[in-house]
Protein backbone atom coordinates (compact mmCIF):
# COMPACT_ATOMS: atom_id res chain seq x y z
CA UNK A 1 0.00 0.00 0.00
CA UNK A 2 1.65 3.26 -1.09
CA UNK A 3 0.14 6.21 0.82
CA UNK A 4 -0.13 9.07 -1.63
CA UNK A 5 -1.02 11.15 1.38
CA UNK A 6 2.53 10.66 2.58
CA UNK A 7 3.58 12.25 -0.67
CA UNK A 8 1.47 15.25 0.24
CA UNK A 9 3.34 15.46 3.53
CA UNK A 10 6.59 15.69 1.60
CA UNK A 11 5.13 18.36 -0.65
CA UNK A 12 3.63 20.52 2.05
CA UNK A 13 5.53 19.47 5.18
CA UNK A 14 2.23 18.81 6.93
CA UNK A 15 1.61 15.86 9.28
CA UNK A 16 -1.32 13.55 9.63
CA UNK A 17 -1.66 12.05 6.15
CA UNK A 18 -1.75 8.26 5.99
CA UNK A 19 -3.50 5.43 4.24
CA UNK A 20 -3.41 2.27 6.27
CA UNK A 21 -5.41 -0.08 8.38
CA UNK A 22 -3.82 0.86 11.67
CA UNK A 23 -5.46 2.17 14.80
CA UNK A 24 -3.37 4.59 16.78
CA UNK A 25 -3.39 8.09 18.20
CA UNK A 26 -4.27 9.55 14.80
CA UNK A 27 -7.33 7.36 14.52
CA UNK A 28 -10.61 7.77 16.32
CA UNK A 29 -12.88 4.87 17.22
CA UNK A 30 -14.33 2.75 14.44
CA UNK A 31 -17.78 4.18 15.14
CA UNK A 32 -16.56 7.75 14.57
CA UNK A 33 -14.87 7.02 11.25
CA UNK A 34 -17.25 6.89 8.27
CA UNK A 35 -17.07 3.86 6.01
CA UNK A 36 -17.13 3.92 2.23
CA UNK A 37 -17.30 1.08 -0.25
CA UNK A 38 -14.67 0.42 -2.89
CA UNK A 39 -16.07 -1.42 -5.88
CA UNK A 40 -16.90 -0.83 -9.52
CA UNK A 41 -20.63 -0.74 -8.73
CA UNK A 42 -20.64 1.24 -5.46
CA UNK A 43 -17.43 3.28 -5.41
CA UNK A 44 -17.56 5.74 -2.53
CA UNK A 45 -21.02 4.69 -1.36
CA UNK A 46 -21.66 5.49 2.30
CA UNK A 47 -19.56 8.66 2.62
CA UNK A 48 -20.93 12.11 1.82
CA UNK A 49 -19.47 14.75 4.15
CA UNK A 50 -16.49 15.62 6.34
CA UNK A 51 -15.09 18.52 8.34
CA UNK A 52 -12.01 20.33 7.05
CA UNK A 53 -8.71 19.37 8.65
CA UNK A 54 -7.79 15.78 9.43
CA UNK A 55 -10.14 13.56 7.43
CA UNK A 56 -10.44 9.82 7.93
CA UNK A 57 -12.54 7.34 6.01
CA UNK A 58 -12.60 3.58 6.44
CA UNK A 59 -12.58 2.08 2.95
CA UNK A 60 -13.92 -1.47 2.53
CA UNK A 61 -13.41 -3.40 -0.69
CA UNK A 62 -16.72 -5.08 -1.53
CA UNK A 63 -15.53 -6.24 -4.95
CA UNK A 64 -14.10 -9.64 -5.87
CA UNK A 65 -10.91 -8.02 -7.18
CA UNK A 66 -8.17 -5.98 -5.56
CA UNK A 67 -8.84 -2.26 -5.89
CA UNK A 68 -6.82 0.91 -6.21
CA UNK A 69 -8.63 3.68 -4.35
CA UNK A 70 -7.87 7.39 -4.75
CA UNK A 71 -9.24 10.50 -3.08
CA UNK A 72 -9.53 13.32 -5.61
CA UNK A 73 -11.07 16.72 -6.17
CA UNK A 74 -12.99 17.89 -9.22
CA UNK A 75 -9.84 19.05 -11.03
CA UNK A 76 -8.26 15.60 -10.77
CA UNK A 77 -5.74 16.35 -8.03
CA UNK A 78 -5.08 13.46 -5.67
CA UNK A 79 -5.06 13.72 -1.88
CA UNK A 80 -4.79 10.10 -0.82
CA UNK A 81 -4.37 6.59 -2.12
CA UNK A 82 -4.78 2.99 -1.01
CA UNK A 83 -3.05 0.61 -3.41
CA UNK A 84 -3.77 -2.23 -3.33
CA UNK A 85 -6.87 -2.98 -1.25
CA UNK A 86 -7.58 -6.70 -1.30
CA UNK A 87 -11.10 -8.14 -1.71
CA UNK A 88 -12.92 -7.93 1.60
CA UNK A 89 -10.15 -5.88 3.18
CA UNK A 90 -10.58 -2.58 4.99
CA UNK A 91 -8.09 0.27 5.34
CA UNK A 92 -8.35 3.76 6.79
CA UNK A 93 -7.41 6.55 4.41
CA UNK A 94 -6.20 9.61 6.32
CA UNK A 95 -5.36 13.00 4.88
CA UNK A 96 -5.83 16.70 5.61
CA UNK A 97 -8.34 18.61 3.46
CA UNK A 98 -9.47 22.19 3.00
CA UNK A 99 -13.13 22.98 2.34
CA UNK A 100 -14.34 21.82 -1.05
CA UNK A 101 -15.81 18.93 -2.98
CA UNK A 102 -13.97 15.62 -3.23
CA UNK A 103 -14.75 12.04 -4.23
CA UNK A 104 -13.31 8.55 -4.19
CA UNK A 105 -12.07 6.91 -7.38
CA UNK A 106 -11.92 3.10 -7.67
CA UNK A 107 -9.87 1.18 -10.22
CA UNK A 108 -9.24 -2.52 -10.81
CA UNK A 109 -6.00 -3.68 -12.47
CA UNK A 110 -5.39 -0.21 -13.92
CA UNK A 111 -8.71 -0.48 -15.76
CA UNK A 112 -11.19 2.31 -16.43
CA UNK A 113 -11.68 4.09 -13.08
CA UNK A 114 -15.09 4.60 -11.49
CA UNK A 115 -15.76 7.97 -9.84
CA UNK A 116 -17.83 7.98 -6.66
CA UNK A 117 -20.35 10.56 -5.45
CA UNK A 118 -19.40 14.01 -4.20
CA UNK A 119 -18.15 14.39 -0.65
CA UNK A 120 -18.63 17.89 0.79
CA UNK A 121 -15.89 19.10 3.11
CA UNK A 122 -16.74 22.20 5.13
CA UNK A 123 -14.88 24.32 7.65
CA UNK A 124 -11.99 26.77 7.89
CA UNK A 125 -9.07 24.40 8.50
CA UNK A 126 -6.39 24.22 5.83
CA UNK A 127 -5.45 21.04 4.03
CA UNK A 128 -2.56 19.66 2.05
CA UNK A 129 -1.95 20.50 -1.56
CA UNK A 130 -3.20 17.86 -3.99
CA UNK A 131 -1.02 16.37 -6.67
CA UNK A 132 -1.93 16.05 -10.33
CA UNK A 133 -1.46 12.37 -11.23
CA UNK A 134 1.01 11.30 -13.90
CA UNK A 135 -0.01 8.81 -16.58
CA UNK A 136 2.06 6.39 -18.62
CA UNK A 137 1.39 8.61 -21.64
CA UNK A 138 2.93 11.56 -19.77
CA UNK A 139 6.01 9.52 -18.94
CA UNK A 140 6.49 7.79 -22.28
CA UNK A 141 8.49 10.53 -24.06
CA UNK A 142 10.61 11.10 -20.96
CA UNK A 143 11.39 7.41 -20.64
CA UNK A 144 12.32 7.21 -24.31
CA UNK A 145 14.62 10.23 -23.95
CA UNK A 146 16.31 8.72 -20.90
CA UNK A 147 16.78 5.37 -22.61
CA UNK A 148 18.42 7.10 -25.58
CA UNK A 149 20.79 8.86 -23.19
CA UNK A 150 21.67 5.53 -21.55
CA UNK A 151 22.27 3.97 -24.97
CA UNK A 152 24.59 6.85 -25.85
CA UNK A 153 26.51 6.32 -22.62
CA UNK A 154 26.72 2.62 -23.40
CA UNK A 155 28.27 3.39 -26.78
CA UNK A 156 30.88 5.47 -24.98
CA UNK A 157 31.48 2.65 -22.51
CA UNK A 158 31.91 0.11 -25.29
CA UNK A 159 34.71 2.23 -26.73
CA UNK A 160 36.32 2.57 -23.31
CA UNK A 161 36.12 -1.19 -22.80
CA UNK A 162 38.04 -1.68 -26.05
CA UNK A 163 40.71 0.71 -24.78
CA UNK A 164 40.83 -1.23 -21.52
CA UNK A 165 41.28 -4.52 -23.37
CA UNK A 166 44.09 -3.01 -25.43
CA UNK A 167 45.80 -1.75 -22.28
CA UNK A 168 45.49 -5.15 -20.62
CA UNK A 169 47.03 -6.89 -23.59
CA UNK A 170 49.89 -4.39 -23.61
CA UNK A 171 50.81 -5.36 -20.07
CA UNK A 172 51.09 -1.76 -18.82
CA UNK A 173 49.45 -1.66 -15.41
CA UNK A 174 49.25 2.13 -15.05
CA UNK A 175 47.65 2.48 -18.48
CA UNK A 176 45.21 -0.34 -17.75
CA UNK A 177 44.28 1.13 -14.38
CA UNK A 178 43.59 4.53 -15.94
CA UNK A 179 41.47 2.91 -18.66
CA UNK A 180 39.58 0.93 -16.03
CA UNK A 181 38.81 4.06 -14.01
CA UNK A 182 37.35 5.79 -17.05
CA UNK A 183 35.19 2.82 -18.02
CA UNK A 184 34.02 2.33 -14.45
CA UNK A 185 33.07 5.99 -14.15
CA UNK A 186 30.95 5.82 -17.29
CA UNK A 187 29.20 2.68 -16.05
CA UNK A 188 28.33 4.43 -12.80
CA UNK A 189 26.56 7.25 -14.63
CA UNK A 190 24.14 4.80 -16.24
CA UNK A 191 21.78 4.18 -13.36
CA UNK A 192 22.42 0.47 -13.01
CA UNK A 193 21.34 0.41 -9.35
CA UNK A 194 19.35 -2.53 -7.98
CA UNK A 195 19.93 -4.78 -10.95
CA UNK A 196 18.37 -2.38 -13.45
CA UNK A 197 20.08 -4.20 -16.32
CA UNK A 198 19.31 -7.70 -15.11
CA UNK A 199 21.77 -10.57 -15.47
CA UNK A 200 23.90 -8.63 -17.96
CA UNK A 201 24.32 -5.85 -15.44
CA UNK A 202 25.58 -8.40 -12.91
CA UNK A 203 27.99 -9.82 -15.48
CA UNK A 204 29.31 -6.35 -16.31
CA UNK A 205 29.71 -4.97 -12.79
CA UNK A 206 28.60 -7.56 -10.25
CA UNK A 207 30.59 -8.16 -7.09
CA UNK A 208 32.09 -11.45 -5.94
CA UNK A 209 29.69 -12.20 -3.09
CA UNK A 210 27.29 -14.49 -5.01
CA UNK A 211 30.12 -16.81 -6.08
CA UNK A 212 31.10 -19.86 -4.07
CA UNK A 213 34.82 -19.09 -4.19
CA UNK A 214 34.43 -15.33 -3.85
CA UNK A 215 37.17 -13.31 -5.53
CA UNK A 216 38.88 -16.52 -6.64
CA UNK A 217 35.85 -17.94 -8.43
CA UNK A 218 36.56 -18.52 -12.14
CA UNK A 219 32.98 -17.57 -13.03
CA UNK A 220 33.33 -14.04 -11.67
CA UNK A 221 33.86 -11.55 -14.50
CA UNK A 222 33.29 -7.88 -15.26
CA UNK A 223 34.65 -4.52 -14.19
CA UNK A 224 35.02 -5.40 -10.52
CA UNK A 225 36.86 -8.63 -11.31
CA UNK A 226 39.29 -6.70 -13.51
CA UNK A 227 39.67 -4.12 -10.73
CA UNK A 228 40.57 -6.85 -8.27
CA UNK A 229 43.23 -8.22 -10.57
CA UNK A 230 44.77 -4.85 -11.46
CA UNK A 231 45.07 -3.79 -7.82
CA UNK A 232 46.08 -7.16 -6.38
CA UNK A 233 49.18 -7.96 -8.36
CA UNK A 234 47.77 -10.01 -11.23
CA UNK A 235 49.51 -9.27 -14.50
CA UNK A 236 47.46 -7.13 -16.89
CA UNK A 237 48.06 -9.63 -19.69
CA UNK A 238 46.47 -12.38 -17.59
CA UNK A 239 43.33 -10.24 -17.35
CA UNK A 240 43.04 -9.69 -21.10
CA UNK A 241 40.52 -12.53 -21.43
CA UNK A 242 38.28 -10.76 -18.93
CA UNK A 243 38.52 -7.61 -21.00
CA UNK A 244 37.20 -9.55 -23.98
CA UNK A 245 34.35 -10.99 -21.91
CA UNK A 246 33.46 -7.46 -20.78
CA UNK A 247 33.32 -6.27 -24.40
CA UNK A 248 31.07 -9.19 -25.32
CA UNK A 249 28.70 -8.49 -22.42
CA UNK A 250 28.50 -4.80 -23.28
CA UNK A 251 27.66 -5.67 -26.88
CA UNK A 252 24.90 -7.97 -25.62
CA UNK A 253 23.56 -5.19 -23.39
CA UNK A 254 23.46 -2.87 -26.39
CA UNK A 255 21.38 -5.39 -28.31
CA UNK A 256 19.10 -5.84 -25.30
CA UNK A 257 18.46 -2.11 -25.02
CA UNK A 258 17.58 -1.86 -28.70
CA UNK A 259 14.92 -4.56 -28.43
CA UNK A 260 13.38 -3.66 -25.06
CA UNK A 261 11.85 -0.55 -23.56
CA UNK A 262 12.49 0.78 -20.09
CA UNK A 263 9.36 0.54 -17.95
CA UNK A 264 8.12 3.93 -16.69
CA UNK A 265 7.78 2.77 -13.09
CA UNK A 266 11.33 1.36 -13.12
CA UNK A 267 12.69 4.65 -14.45
CA UNK A 268 11.02 6.84 -11.84
CA UNK A 269 12.22 4.49 -9.09
CA UNK A 270 15.80 5.04 -10.23
CA UNK A 271 15.55 8.70 -9.20
CA UNK A 272 15.88 7.46 -5.63
CA UNK A 273 17.50 4.04 -6.02
CA UNK A 274 20.76 5.30 -7.52
CA UNK A 275 21.45 7.57 -4.55
CA UNK A 276 20.36 4.93 -2.06
CA UNK A 277 22.84 2.59 -3.72
CA UNK A 278 25.54 5.27 -3.38
CA UNK A 279 24.88 5.45 0.35
CA UNK A 280 24.59 1.72 1.03
CA UNK A 281 27.02 0.20 -1.46
CA UNK A 282 29.50 2.74 -2.81
CA UNK A 283 30.48 4.90 0.17
CA UNK A 284 30.66 1.88 2.47
CA UNK A 285 33.32 0.30 0.25
CA UNK A 286 31.07 -2.69 -0.37
CA UNK A 287 32.16 -2.71 -4.01
CA UNK A 288 35.78 -1.64 -3.53
CA UNK A 289 38.17 -4.26 -4.90
CA UNK A 290 41.35 -2.22 -4.65
CA UNK A 291 40.96 0.93 -6.73
CA UNK A 292 39.45 2.93 -3.85
CA UNK A 293 37.29 4.77 -6.36
CA UNK A 294 34.40 5.51 -3.97
CA UNK A 295 34.44 9.27 -4.52
CA UNK A 296 34.71 9.04 -8.30
CA UNK A 297 31.94 6.44 -8.35
CA UNK A 298 29.70 8.56 -6.12
CA UNK A 299 30.25 11.60 -8.35
CA UNK A 300 29.35 9.58 -11.43
CA UNK A 301 26.22 8.31 -9.72
CA UNK A 302 25.25 11.90 -8.85
CA UNK A 303 25.73 12.79 -12.51
CA UNK A 304 23.44 9.95 -13.53
CA UNK A 305 20.77 11.05 -11.06
CA UNK A 306 21.04 14.66 -12.22
CA UNK A 307 20.57 13.61 -15.84
CA UNK A 308 17.48 11.57 -15.01
CA UNK A 309 16.00 14.45 -13.01
CA UNK A 310 16.68 16.81 -15.91
CA UNK A 311 14.69 14.55 -18.22
CA UNK A 312 11.82 14.29 -15.73
CA UNK A 313 11.86 17.95 -14.68
CA UNK A 314 8.84 19.06 -16.80
CA UNK A 315 6.68 16.56 -14.91
CA UNK A 316 8.34 16.98 -11.55
CA UNK A 317 8.70 20.75 -11.21
CA UNK A 318 4.97 21.55 -10.93
CA UNK A 319 4.41 18.62 -8.55
CA UNK A 320 7.34 18.76 -6.14
CA UNK A 321 8.24 22.12 -4.57
CA UNK A 322 11.32 20.57 -2.95
CA UNK A 323 12.97 19.99 -6.35
CA UNK A 324 15.15 23.08 -5.94
CA UNK A 325 16.46 21.61 -2.67
CA UNK A 326 17.26 18.37 -4.49
CA UNK A 327 19.37 20.27 -7.02
CA UNK A 328 21.10 22.21 -4.23
CA UNK A 329 22.02 19.02 -2.39
CA UNK A 330 23.38 17.44 -5.55
CA UNK A 331 25.64 20.48 -5.95
CA UNK A 332 26.64 20.41 -2.27
CA UNK A 333 27.40 16.70 -2.46
CA UNK A 334 29.61 17.19 -5.50
CA UNK A 335 31.48 20.05 -3.84
CA UNK A 336 32.04 18.18 -0.59
CA UNK A 337 33.26 15.12 -2.48
CA UNK A 338 35.65 17.30 -4.48
CA UNK A 339 36.99 18.80 -1.25
CA UNK A 340 38.17 15.42 0.08
CA UNK A 341 41.93 15.02 -0.16
CA UNK A 342 41.82 11.37 0.83
CA UNK A 343 39.23 8.70 1.46
CA UNK A 344 39.37 5.60 3.61
CA UNK A 345 36.55 3.13 4.01
CA UNK A 346 35.49 3.11 7.65
CA UNK A 347 36.14 -0.31 9.24
CA UNK A 348 33.24 -2.06 10.93
CA UNK A 349 32.77 -0.52 14.36
CA UNK A 350 35.20 2.31 13.57
CA UNK A 351 34.66 6.06 13.56
CA UNK A 352 34.48 7.75 10.17
CA UNK A 353 36.68 10.75 9.47
CA UNK A 354 35.03 14.18 9.44
CA UNK A 355 35.10 14.41 5.66
CA UNK A 356 33.62 10.94 5.35
CA UNK A 357 30.81 11.89 7.73
CA UNK A 358 30.12 15.06 5.76
CA UNK A 359 29.80 13.22 2.45
CA UNK A 360 27.71 10.48 4.04
CA UNK A 361 25.39 13.13 5.50
CA UNK A 362 25.08 14.88 2.14
CA UNK A 363 24.11 11.72 0.32
CA UNK A 364 21.74 10.66 3.10
CA UNK A 365 19.96 14.02 2.96
CA UNK A 366 19.77 13.83 -0.82
CA UNK A 367 18.31 10.32 -0.62
CA UNK A 368 15.69 11.62 1.82
CA UNK A 369 14.69 14.43 -0.54
CA UNK A 370 14.50 12.01 -3.46
CA UNK A 371 12.31 9.53 -1.58
CA UNK A 372 8.90 11.03 -2.56
CA UNK A 373 9.70 11.30 -6.27
CA UNK A 374 8.90 7.70 -7.32
CA UNK A 375 5.51 8.02 -5.61
CA UNK A 376 4.83 11.42 -7.18
CA UNK A 377 5.68 10.19 -10.68
CA UNK A 378 4.29 6.67 -10.42
CA UNK A 379 2.02 6.28 -13.48
CA UNK A 380 -1.64 5.97 -12.54
CA UNK A 381 -4.82 5.19 -14.45
CA UNK A 382 -7.13 7.86 -13.14
CA UNK A 383 -9.45 9.23 -15.81
From TrEMBL:
Residues 145-371 form the Imelysin-like domain. One of its GO terms (cellular component) is cell envelope. Residues 1-18 form the signal peptide. The keyword Signal applies. InterPro entries: EfeM/EfeO_iron_uptake, Imelysin-like, Imelysin-like_EfeO/Algp7, Imelysin_sf. It is found in: Cell envelope. The keyword rRNA-binding does not apply. Its main location: other. Keywords: Signal. Pfam families: Peptidase_M75 (PF09375). PANTHER family: IRON UPTAKE SYSTEM COMPONENT EFEO. Belongs to the EfeM/EfeO family. This is Iron transporter. It comes from Flexivirga endophytica.
Amino acid sequence: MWPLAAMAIALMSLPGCRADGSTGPAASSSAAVPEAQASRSHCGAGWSRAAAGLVQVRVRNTDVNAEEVFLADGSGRLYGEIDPLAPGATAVLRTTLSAGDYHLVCSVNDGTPVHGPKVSVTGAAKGVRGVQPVTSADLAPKVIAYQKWVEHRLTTLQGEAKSLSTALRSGHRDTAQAAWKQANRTWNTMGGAYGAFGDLGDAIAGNAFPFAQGVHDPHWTGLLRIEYGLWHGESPASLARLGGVLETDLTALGKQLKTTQFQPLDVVRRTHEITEDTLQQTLTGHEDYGAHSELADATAQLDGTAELLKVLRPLLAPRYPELSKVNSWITKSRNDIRAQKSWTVTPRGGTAAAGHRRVDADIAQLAELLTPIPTILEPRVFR
